[in-house]
Amino acid sequence: MGLMYPNMCIGCMQNSLPTRKGFLCVDCIADLPFNHHFESPYNNELVERFYGRFPVHYAVSLFYFMADNAVQKMMHAFKYKEEKYIGQQLGKLLGENFRNHLSRDLPELLVPVPLHRDKLISRGFNQSEIIATSLGEVTGTKVLPNALVKLIDTHSQTQMSRTERMENLKNVFAVSEKSLPLLKGRHVLLIDDTVTTGATLESCARQLLNNGAQKVSVACIAMAK
User: Domains of the chain by range and CATH?
Assistant: First the structure.
């Protein structure tokens, strides 16, 4: 629906918008739980989530993710109802925030968190890659969609603790050989749709840092409280 009717509100998918320039209706904008990560990208609650886990350069997200809020509805429609337009617009919104708040410290490469091959075939797209591509269009930053590979199709981590998630992610991710020379000495922005415990991002970041990246930052659409 999102691709066929791009001027529908992506929050409720019910209210139409007066122009194609926006993507949320007034009612949904009022309900969105924006955070303020971009105002202090080097020192915020998302950065703190990675303390002692890997040396994150900066970490930002746009919203808080909570049960039954507008963000959850948007992300569910994006990931499970193939409303790719939602991810594209949210990626652009991320990009605009980077231009407005981090123009002097933009990453050199964008790397989306990968899906396992079987999950990619089943879903038909990698939601993190869609976000990264749209972000890159706004900032002019190169995207490396296959820099990371997910070797093992892990079980759902929704009900797992941070320790259980890290155990579940052991030896799951790897850096592709073709990407090794491109990562060396670069500032890499690791991109995911949502972050909960941060275990997936930590596992991916360690692989990037262990394979030549100079520093790794993180960007997500939403952060679970």
Answer: 33-224 (3.40.50.2020)
